[in-house]
Structure formats: C-alpha cells, structure tokens
C-alpha cells in the first residue's frame, strides 16, 4: 500500500483532534445489555464468602448474591452486606502526561476505591450520583493496574440511609451504573454550565483546571447537523481565573419544548496562542421557565399543564441497572400516552434517560433523594452539587425537587440556585412550598377546593395511586377536566410508571412486587400495557373531541379543542375509517381529513367527507397523528345502534313452534334441538340443553340491588311464539319477567325492574356459569379492556376476541387485557365454552356484561375496592367504580360515585328495561 503525505496528514490531524477531546475508556459495560465481568466477593447472604465474578454494572441481588430487601422490611444484614470488586486494566500509552479520572455513574451505597492498593480518595456516600477521582498519580501507563472497590449496601452515614434506604421501593446494592476512565490534557475544561433562554440570550460558565494566564476560551454554537448559528464567543483567562463567563445572542432560535424538542450543540475550546488545548461538546436547548406566583408555570411564555408520571430507574431482571434502550422504550411509552412530563422519583436518573427526554421531549422534575428522611447538610450539599453538575445542561430538566414527602432538608434550598446557572425553580414534593401546593393523593373535592379557593399553584407530584388496577385511569377524567379549566392548576404526576416486579433469583425466578407495595404501574415489569394506559392516552390527548352522537342527521362535522401549548392542529394529520361488521365479514372504507387551522387553546371543527352510504356502516373511526407521525389516539363513533344489529342477528321464524310441558315446579320447553327448563313459580332459568349436551348457563335472571320477585307466571302462544310472563303487583311482584321462545330456537328475556335504592353500586341481572367451563368470548362492543364506572375511556368500539385468563392486574402472569371484569357497550357476546358456545344479543343501549369476579386484593388502607355482583355472568345497566390505594372510589370524582336512580317511588314509577336474546343452538 502506498502511503502518501496526504494520508499521513489526515491521520495526524485525526489524532490531534482526538487528543484535544476528552477520551473515555469503559472499565465496565454501559448498561444491563452490555456488561463486563469483574471479580466479586459478597460478605453476607447468598453466595457470600467466596470469590467469583459478577457483571458490572448490576445490582448483586439480581445476580444471586446477598439478600433481597424492600424498603419497609427490617434488614437483619444491615451493615454486614458488602460487595468487594476487583478488576485489572491497562491505561493506553497515548494517555501518558494526561490527567486521568475514574468516574462512577452510580454505586449503592458507600463506595471506597483503591488503585494499585492506594486510596483514590474519600469514601463516597450516596447511591444515585456520579462521582470521580483524579488517579493520575496512581495508575501505571502501559502496564496492568488493579482496581479495588468496596461497596457497602447500607451507609455508615445515618442520614444517607434515612434518605435512600428507608423508602417504599426495592433496596439494592452494587455498582449499578457504568464505570469508566477519562483522559484530559493537564490544562483542561472541567465543566461547562449553560443557560439559553427562549429569546436567544445565551450564557455559559466554563470551569477550568490548571489554566494559564492569557489563555483563551472560544465557543461556537451549531445546529445538530453542524451549521454555525452564531459568531465565535471568546473569553480571556485572567490571573487566578478558574471560570470564564461567555455570553452571546442568537436571533430567533428554534426553542425547546416537550412538543418540539429543538436542540443545538456548543463546542467550547481552551486555546493557548490559537492552539487548541482541549475541546468539549455539549448539547442544549433554548427555552425559558418562569413561575408566576398565584398563577402558574410558563415555558417559553406559555402556561403549561403537566401531564406527568413518576418513574423509578428499574428493570425486572437487573433492578436499578438499565440501558439506553430501556430509557428510549420508557420515554416512547410516556409520549405514546400523550404525557409531557416525568418526575424522577425519588433520585436522579441515568444520564441516557435525560438524553432521551431531551431528544424526544419530556419536561423533567429532577430530584435530590429523600423519601421520608433527608440527608444531613454536609452530605446533602455535596450530593446536590454532584446532581446539578451532572444534569444542569439538559433542557428537559426544568425543576429541582428537594426531597419527597418530608424528606426535605431546608438548609439545602438556597444552594440549588447558587450551583445552577439557570436558577431553576426548587419545590418540595408533598408540601406547600415556594408558592406550590404539591400535596399527594388529594381527594377530588379537596383538590377542587384548592383550585377554586386557594392561592398556591396546585401541582400534586403524586396523584391517583395506581396500585393494581385502581387509580391512574380510574378517576383521571374527572381530575383532569377540572385541572384543565382551573387557572391555579399546573397539572400533576401519576404514581407511578411501572410495576416494580423483580426476578427473585432466590425463589426460582418468580416475579415479586412485595405484595401490594410495588404493583403501582401503568405498565408491567416488562412494560405490558394495562387498561389505564389507554385511558390516559385518550384523556391526555392534546386533541379533545366533543362528545358526539352519530345520527342520520350527521353532517360530517366533529367539534374539537386544541390542547397543545405550542402547536397548531394543522400540523397534525387525520384519517377516517368506516367499518361494517356483518357476522365475521368485515367491510370498510377509509379516507383522509383536511386538518383545520386551530391555534393552541382554541376550538374548531373537523369536517369529514364521507361516502353517501356511510349510514350502512356500524362505526366511524377517526385517527389523529402528530407532526412526528405518531398516533395521538383513535376515536370511535357508533353509527348502528344495538336494535339494528339485533334485528339483523336474531332469527325468530321457524318451521315449528315450541312445545311446553309442566312437570312439578318446571316449565320444560322444547323447540328444534333445544330444551329449556324454567321455574314456573319464579321464572328463573334452570337448565339449557341441546343435542350436544347441557350448557351450564342457569340460575337467572337474578336482579342485583333489587328484588327478584317475579311471581304468578302464565304462558300463551302469540302465533308461533311461546310467551311466559309474570304478573305485575305493585306490592309483591313489581319487577316483571317475560320469556319468549321463538320457532327458530332463539329465546328472548325481557326484565322490567326497579333498582333497590336511589344510590346503587350496580344494577342489572345475574346468571350462573362455572368459570371452569369458559374458554373465551367474542363480542361486539367497546374493547378490548375491561372498564370501571370511573374508567370508561381508552377503548374502541368493534368486535373483539378474548381468551380466558386469570390475570390480576399488577401480578403474574401480566397477560393483558384481563378477562374478568366489566365490559362496556355490549351489542352481542358469544360465550365460548370448553364444550360448546352460546350467544347473547341485546337491543338496549349502554349494556355492560360482566365476566366473573377478579380476586379481591387486600389493601391495608381499605380504599382499593373491587365491587362485583353475585353470580358469574351479569348483564348490567350500572357498574361500580374502583378505588385506589389512597382514595375510595367515591372520593375520586363524580364518576366514582354510586349510580343514581331518580324514578324510584315516583308516580308513575318507571322501571328499567333489559332485553336479551339467547342463541343456545349456535345459529349466529
């Protein structure tokens, strides 16, 4: 190969540029998806007392060492459980003469570091903060070096344990974030702190080490694709200066927000007589954050409502050790739910999580650890400085939180603005502080009282506690609609993002959420989506659809509201789709919609150009996508009503009429291959049989929260239809039941009934069907997820199939959607048994069908309630809400309250009417 002068020049230039930048050498892996084995010795618990290896980064409990601890558990190994690490490494010969640091992004909890048998510095106390030691004089260049690290799971500093180790979350040990070496010129840039506001004002503090008199600092702002944005910014180093301040102005910058996360990069260099000594690159965004007391939070001049969630750094097989891919997955899921904010509970996150929040757009509340205890002032000051220096340049970080739920050290509040060039607001989670009321889990009425009658900005940093299936979506619509219109509301943060179910390597790999302590997520441990996920997605959609009934008079106009802060609706795209469900033949048409010009916070209309035969279809879907082509939501609007569908499905005619025989207490009716037995005194269905055998559907209808007082039955024929009817009596049999058996074999049930009170938890009728006999269902209605009275949003209308499962939300096996529960807007349902199937059709609107009863979960606060009727399968016209760990269902807003029946005891009293058609012969 011919080596030219040009080749040598480019190689030398490349080497010089590399030499001027900070160089990094990982000693560990970069996350749970890429690790490096180190020698390891655990001092207590499983697999202790022997040298072996462990992947780094990791939490050692998940690797089979030590003892699993949840924060509430009394730990008998406290102070005894330590991890001893050893690793040998070489320093590149090209690093000779450079300053060399070893950097730990996070270790739990007290960390002592030695290089070649010598201490690298003081023991670091605190788990979640990046720290470094200058080991320039301790390492040998070009030969092997020995790194020894001792990590104590619990700290010798009592305040660290109070802040970090005594919390409502899993307690782990180990080097759980990456470890690397960095090489810098002896004279170098230690840190750059940036502040760039929405008007284009830019300033930076450049912190230098070993700089010399008359050296200069030069900086240039670029777009991310390398275009220069400003003239070079320069600052001269004067005698004794360790910091150089830079300022400039950029005309009309593209600002950063959660909707449009525009970013730039700054390249800053230390120069010695125009020779580049050291260069750093930092990404940032132009944006302004302003808190107006007794008003709200403004980002880039716009008042913001935070649609947020709390997030722990967590993965089921690796504990607090995550990866860039997990960060990307989590932020994408949050954005998919139309969230715009995330709170770092209860400690700072991995740097790659903030990188993703920067690039995809989420407002971040970054938190100094403290659950119900706090750091002492010397320790807290040190960790606070590490937090700020590590996270300060992320445009996503717009608030600091000084501890959670009483874990506030008030002496630290004034240090945040001293350390932070941007002077971000500081709040206390769960406290009235600095003009904010962030109290957690407020009851609906109490919160509304604060919005309407208080003076602080109301921003609960935790609300609607999502234990199991309660909270999150349940009650959210009530809370959010009030938050949206209340001037003092700045939104809030749901608790929390993920069920923290960890793999127990000491219990054959089971997933453990420590009972109800960690089953609080919107998604499961592997990010399985629960029903509340889709409720949140709809309720927090930045496009709000006004409720609309589609009738023959529909003119194609749907009213909408723009709930974006910065974006016009015309930046989105819309499509429509019509579907007709003809048994299993799906017919559909689709088209696009011209997006209207609707500015933020304004209302307007979508105008659909539908085909002339649109009324022949059963449902209209409208899908909105944002300016990144990501789905905002798909809304469904029913066109066909249940009566129309029932007419098309139920076949009444046949070649023979039913035969009826009275034996003892039974009417036994036979038609075609069907035999039905009904109690002639009560009207209750006793037995269903066809030529394939018995269908174990019986013991109904039993009126729920009302009297099953059907009496005095008689039968007659209306042409070929056999009708069995009870007699109305205002005192003793005011609820009535009528059975009709058609020559086709279809059976009609008509119940007229009065709920038992003004206020009812649920009302309708129940039947028995053994759970052991069910295989699945196929139904037309809203799906695929179950609903609660206070969680109706998030589903679409269509035809759905569900296989039987025993999933209990937040517990193994995390198979969603759950099978058991309430399902809304039933038109028909095919119950698929293990032996044979039968179908139920209704001509009533707004019917719920209930599938069995989920297991009741014990809640020490007795707020989380699972209320279900008697029996196994129910057809209801009112269902129950669900509570959360912290609030009963009736305290979560109007939707969580009981059903109200206004016509009870009025003259003339009007009964509820429920009509069902049964196909026990498989005609459908």
TrEMBL record:
Coiled coil (residue ranges): none
Which InterPro entries does this entry report, sorted A to Z? B-gal_small/dom_5, Bact_Beta-galactosidase, Beta-gal/glucu_dom_sf, Gal_mutarotase_sf_dom, Galactose-bd-like_sf, GH, GH-type_carb-bd, Glyco_hydro_2
Pfam families in alphabetical order: Bgal_small_N (PF02929), Glyco_hydro_2 (PF00703), Glyco_hydro_2_C (PF02836), Glyco_hydro_2_N (PF02837)
Name this polypeptide is given: beta-galactosidase
**Aminoacyl-tRNA synthetase is among the record's keywords:** no
- Family in the record: Belongs to the glycosyl hydrolase 2 family.
Q: Name one GO molecular function term.
A: hydrolase activity
Which key words tag this protein in UniProt?
Calcium, Glycosidase, Hydrolase, Signal
Originating organism:
Arcicella aquatica
Q: Which reaction does it catalyse?
A: Hydrolysis of terminal non-reducing beta-D-galactose residues in beta-D-galactosides
EC assignment: 3.2.1.23
The cofactor required is:
Ca(2+)
Residue stretches making up the Glycoside hydrolase family 2 catalytic domain: 295-508
Where do the Glycoside hydrolase family 2 immunoglobulin-like beta-sandwich domain residues begin and end? 189-287
Every Glycosyl hydrolases family 2 sugar binding domain range: 52-185
Q: Which residues form the signal peptide?
A: 1-19
């Amino acid at each position: 190969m011919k080596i030219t002068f040009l080749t040598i020049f480019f190689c030398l230039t490349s080497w010089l540029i590399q030499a001027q930048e900070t160089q990094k050498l990982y000693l560990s892996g970069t996350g749970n998806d890429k690790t490096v084995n180190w020698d390891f010795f655990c001092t207590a618990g499983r697999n202790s007392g022997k040298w072996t290896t462990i992947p780094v980064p990791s939490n050692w409990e998940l690797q089979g060492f030590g003892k699993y601890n949840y924060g509430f558990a009394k730990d008998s190994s406290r102070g005894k459980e330590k991890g001893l690490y050893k690793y040998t490494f070489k320093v590149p010969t090209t690093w000779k003469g450079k300053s060399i640091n070893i950097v730990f992004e996070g270790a739990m909890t007290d960390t002592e570091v030695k290089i070649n048998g010598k201490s690298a510095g003081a023991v670091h106390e605190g788990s979640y903060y990046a720290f470094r030691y200058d080991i320039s004089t301790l390492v040998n260049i070009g030969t092997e070096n020995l790194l020894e690290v001792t990590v104590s799971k619990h700290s010798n500093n009592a305040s660290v344990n109070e802040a970090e180790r005594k919390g409502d979350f899993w307690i782990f040990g180990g080097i759980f974030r990456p470890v690397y070496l960095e090489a810098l010129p002896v004279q170098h840039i230690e840190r750059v702190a940036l502040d760039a506001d929405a008007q284009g004002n830019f300033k930076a503090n450049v912190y230098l080490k070993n700089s010399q008199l008359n050296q200069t600092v030069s900086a240039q702002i670029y777009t991310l694709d390398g275009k220069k944005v400003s003239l070079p910014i320069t600052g001269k180093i004067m005698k004794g200066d360790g910091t150089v301040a830079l300022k400039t102005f950029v005309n009309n910058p593209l600002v950063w927000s959660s909707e449009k996360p525009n970013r730039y990069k700054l390249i800053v260099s230390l120069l010695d007589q125009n020779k580049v000594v050291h260069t750093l690159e930092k990404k940032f965004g132009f944006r302004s954050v302003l808190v107006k007391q007794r008003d709200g939070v403004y980002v880039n001049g716009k008042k913001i409502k935070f649609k947020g969630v709390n997030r722990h750094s967590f993965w089921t097989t690796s504990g607090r050790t995550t990866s860039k891919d997990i960060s990307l997955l989590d932020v994408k899921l949050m954005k998919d739910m139309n969230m715009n904010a995330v709170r770092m509970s209860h400690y700072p996150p991995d740097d790659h999580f903030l990188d993703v929040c920067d690039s995809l757009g989420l407002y971040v509340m970054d938190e100094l650890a403290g659950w119900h205890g706090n750091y002492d002032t010397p320790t807290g000051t040190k960790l606070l400085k590490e937090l700020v220096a590590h996270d300060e340049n992320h445009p996503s970080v717009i608030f600091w939180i000084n501890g959670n739920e009483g874990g506030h050290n008030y002496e630290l509040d004034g240090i945040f603005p001293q350390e932070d060039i941007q002077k971000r607001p500081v709040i206390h989670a769960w406290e009235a502080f600095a003009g904010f009321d962030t109290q957690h889990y407020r009851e609906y009425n109490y919160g509304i009282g604060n919005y309407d009658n208080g003076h602080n900005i109301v921003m609960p940093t935790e609300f609607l506690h999502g234990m199991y299936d309660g909270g999150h979506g349940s009650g959210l619509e009530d809370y959010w609609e009030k938050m949206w219109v209340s001037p003092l509301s700045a939104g809030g943060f749901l608790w929390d993002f993920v069920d923290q179910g960890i793999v127990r390597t000491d219990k054959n790999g089971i997933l453990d959420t420590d009972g109800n302590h960690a089953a609080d997520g919107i998604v499961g441990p592997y990010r399985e989506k629960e029903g509340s996920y889709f409720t949140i997605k709809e309720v927090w959609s930045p496009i709000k659809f006004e409720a609309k009934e589609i009738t023959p008079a529909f003119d194609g106009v749907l009213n909408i509201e723009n709930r974006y802060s910065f974006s016009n609706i015309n930046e989105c795209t819309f499509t429509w789709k019509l579907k007709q469900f003809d048994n299993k033949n799906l017919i559909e048409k689709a088209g696009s919609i011209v997006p209207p010009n609707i500015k933020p916070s304004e209302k307007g209309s979508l105008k659909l150009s539908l085909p002339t035969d649109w009324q022949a279809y059963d449902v209209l879907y409208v899908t909105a996508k944002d300016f990144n082509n990501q789905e905002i939501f798909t809304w469904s609007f029913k066109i066909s009503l249940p009566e129309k569908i029932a007419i098309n499905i139920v076949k009444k005619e046949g070649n023979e009429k039913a035969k009826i025989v009275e034996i003892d207490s039974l009417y036994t009716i036979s038609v075609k291959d069907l035999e039905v037995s009904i109690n002639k005194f009560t009207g209750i269905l006793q037995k269903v049989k066809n030529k394939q055998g018995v269908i174990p559907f019986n013991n109904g209808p039993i009126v729920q929260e009302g009297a099953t007082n059907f009496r005095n039955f008689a039968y007659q024929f209306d042409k070929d239809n056999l009708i069995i009817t009870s007699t109305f009596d205002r005192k003793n049999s005011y609820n009535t039941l009528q059975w009709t058996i058609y020559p086709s074999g279809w059976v009609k049930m008509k119940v007229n009934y009065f709920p038992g009170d003004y206020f009812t938890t649920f009302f309708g009728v129940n039947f028995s069907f053994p759970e052991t006999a069910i295989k699945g269902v196929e139904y037309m209605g809203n799906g695929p997820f179950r609903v609660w009275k206070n969680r109706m949003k998030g589903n679409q209308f269509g035809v759905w199939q569900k296989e039987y499962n025993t999933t209990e939300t937040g517990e193994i096996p995390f198979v969603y959607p759950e099978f058991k529960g309430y399902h809304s807007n039933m038109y028909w349902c095919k119950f698929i048994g293990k032996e044979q199937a039968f179908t139920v059709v209704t001509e009533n609107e707004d019917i719920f069908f209930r599938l069995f009863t989920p297991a009741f979960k014990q809640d020490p606060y007795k707020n989380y309630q699972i209320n279900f009727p008697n029996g196994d399968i129910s057809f209801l016209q009112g269902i129950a809400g669900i509570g959360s760990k912290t609030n009963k269902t009736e305290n979560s807003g109007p939707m969580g309250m009981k059903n109200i029946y206004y016509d009870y005891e009025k003259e003339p009293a009007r009964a509820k009417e429920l009509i069902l058609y049964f196909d026990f012969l498989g005609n459908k």
